[in-house]
């Protein structure tokens, strides 16, 4: 518990973090006649991404991942908009990133209900908040940076899932 609190203090003081959003699937989308060709637009502040458009289905599956730079997770909102062929709106999810801060390991992984859709319509997503560092980030119980001898928590860079299509702001430059 103390290490988790120290990590949150570190996150608040340095302001260098990112969130990785992974979309898996949707279920029970409404359909008017034919099944929709569903795409998702993911927005965080001024940055946005679009998924591929899935072929006609009321339960599309993406398995895509997106990186966003985050300045203040206590204040920022992640918005997911689902639409049929980028025209007709099918539903929206608004996720305050502060909800990720309260999750074990700073990972929110669950089904979320869609606003503007059928009551049973949901999207499965994973939002992971990480300290932004290309090699290594060290969190200390006293909130200090490198130089202290006792390390409480080390976050190593992990390889990404090979079966996910990743997009990040840096890869689009």
From TrEMBL:
In the UniProt record, which is one GO cellular component term?
endoplasmic reticulum membrane
Identify the PROSITE patterns for this entry.
C2 (PS50004)
SUPFAM superfamilies, A to Z: C2 domain (Calcium/lipid-binding domain, CaLB)
Q: Which positions, given as ranges, span the membrane?
A: 6-26
- Could you tell me which residues belong to the region Disordered? 142-173
Q: Where is the composition biased (Basic and acidic residues)?
A: 142-164
GO MF annotation list: calcium ion binding; calcium-dependent phospholipid binding; phosphatidylcholine binding; phosphatidylethanolamine binding; phosphatidylinositol binding
Report whether Plastid shows up as a keyword of the record.
Answer: no
Q: Mind listing the UniProt keywords for this protein, alphabetically?
A: Membrane, Transmembrane, Transmembrane helix
Give the C2 domain ranges: 1-112
User: Per UniProt, what is one Pfam family of this protein?
Assistant: C2
Q: Does the keyword Cell wall biogenesis/degradation apply?
A: no
Name the PANTHER family for this protein.
Answer: EXTENDED SYNAPTOTAGMIN-1-LIKE, EXTENDED SYNAPTOTAGMIN-LIKE PROTEIN 2, ISOFORM C
Task: Write the protein's name.
Answer: C2 domain-containing protein
Q: From which organism does this entry originate?
A: Hucho hucho (huchen)
């Amino acid at each position: 518990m103390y290490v988790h609190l120290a990590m949150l203090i570190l996150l608040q003081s340095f302001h260098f973090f990112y969130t990785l959003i992974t979309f898996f699937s949707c279920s029970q989308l409404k359909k008017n006649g034919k099944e929709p060709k569903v795409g998702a637009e993911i927005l965080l502040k001024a940055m946005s991404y679009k998924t591929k458009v899935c072929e006609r289905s009321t339960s599309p599956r993406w398995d895509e991942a997106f990186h966003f730079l985050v300045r203040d997770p206590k204040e920022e909102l992640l918005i997911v908009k689902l639409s049929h062929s980028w025209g007709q709106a099918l539903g929206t999810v608004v996720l305050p990133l502060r909800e990720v801060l309260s999750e074990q390991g700073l990972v929110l992984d669950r089904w979320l209900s869609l606003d503007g859709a059928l009551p049973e319509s949901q999207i499965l997503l994973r939002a992971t908040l990480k300290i932004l560092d290309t090699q290594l980030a060290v969190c200390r119980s006293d909130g200090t940076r490198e130089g202290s001898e006792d390390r409480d928590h080390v976050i190593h860079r992990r390889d990404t899932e090979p079966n996910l299509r990743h997009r990040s702001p840096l890869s689009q430059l």
